[in-house]
C-alpha cells in the first residue's frame, strides 16, 4: 500500500617520452584513452550516496551492502551520507554525478515516490529521467515506538490517550513526503486522533529527542528503534507491515490488526545516474544478488524485521513507475500531499 556517477600508464624513459611527444604529440593521450576504455570495471573507489544521517535503518543496511559489494568487486565502496530535504539533497547530488558506474545512490520509496509526489516540480531531479535502476535491496515495516513516560502500553491505550489530549501528543518524522510521515498521518486518520507531526532532518536527531522525552512517539525502522526497545528505553506498540515481525519482536501486533488495510512497508533500492553503462549496471546487479544471500545480510534482516528483496534493473524500473501512479492516490486520500 506504500505509494513515495560511480589508468594508470607505465612510465617510460625520459628520452623516449620526449621524442614521442615531439614527433607525435597525440599519441600519449590516445594511448591513455585506450587504456581507460579497456580497464576492467570497477578499477577504483565507488561512492555510495545515502540520503540519511548515520545510524538509521537505511544507513545501517547501506553500510552492510557496501562492505559486501567491496568484498566482491575488489574495490572500496564508500558510503557518503547526504541527508536533507526529505532525501532530495542526496538524490540531486547523485543525479549530477558522472554516469560512469562510480557513483550509486540508495533510492527509496520515500525519496523517489512520496517526496516526488508531495513536492512536484519543486525538486531538481526526476527519478525516472535522471537515474538508472540497478536492483532492489530490501523492504521493511516501520515500528511505532513511544517514550516510556507515555501512558500507553498498547495501541488501543495510545489511541485513547491521544483522543483525551487532542493536538498534545507529538510524533517525529524524518520530513514531509517520507514513509515515516505517511505512516504517521495514516495512523492519525484511521484512529481519528489529532497528533502534532514534528519533522526532523534524519532518524538520528529524531531518535535522540524521542529518547530524551522531548517527543512522544515515532514510526521508525528496526535498526534505530528496536535496540532501544530491547534496552528498555523505548516501548514498541505495533508494526506497519502486512504481517507480524515475529523474529524481530515476538508477539508484536500489526497496526493492520486494529485497522484492516493499514500497511506501510518501505522499500530501499540501488540506482545509478542516467547514462551509466549497461555493463556497470549489470555487474552491480549481479554482485548485489550475491551479497543478499550472505548470512550477514540475512541475519540482519531477521533481527530488524526487514526482508531482503532483489530484482532485475527492469523490474525495479517497472515498480517505480507503477508506484508513482498508485501512491498519488493514497497520499491524496490521507491528506499527506497537502502543504
Identify the CATH homologous superfamily of the largest domain: Bordetella uptake gene, domain 1
Largest sheet: 6 strands, mixed
DSSP strand content: 15-25%
* Fraction of residues in H or I helices: 40-55%
Calculate Rg over CA atoms.
23 Å
Instruction: Give the strand line-up of the largest sheet.
Output: 2-1-3-10-4-11
Structural shape: globular
Which features does this protein show?
339 residues, alpha/beta, D-Maltodextrin-Binding Protein, domain 2, 11 strands, 17% strand, disordered N terminus
Short description:
With 339 residues, the protein is α/β, with parallel strands linked by helices.
Task: Give an overview in words.
Belongs to the UPF0065 (bug) family. The structure is a single chain. The protein is α/β, with parallel strands linked by helices. It folds into two domains: about 45-140 and about 265-335, Bordetella uptake gene, domain 1 (D-Maltodextrin-Binding Protein, domain 2); about 145-255, Periplasmic binding protein-like II (D-Maltodextrin-Binding Protein, domain 2, 3-Layer(aba) Sandwich), CATH 3.40.190. It is about 45% helix and about 15% strand. The protein is built from twelve helices and eleven strands. It has helices at about 15-25, 25-40, 55-75, 90-95, 110-120, 155-165, 180-190, 205-210, 220-230, 280-290, 295-305, 315-335, and strands at about 45-50, 75-80, 105-110, 130-140, 145, 170-175, 195-200, 215-220, 235-240, 265-275, 305-310. Helix 3 (about 55-75) links the parallel strand 1 (about 45-50) and strand 2. Helix 3 (about 55-75) packs across helix 10 (about 280-290). It is globular and about 65 Å long. The two termini are about 20 Å apart.
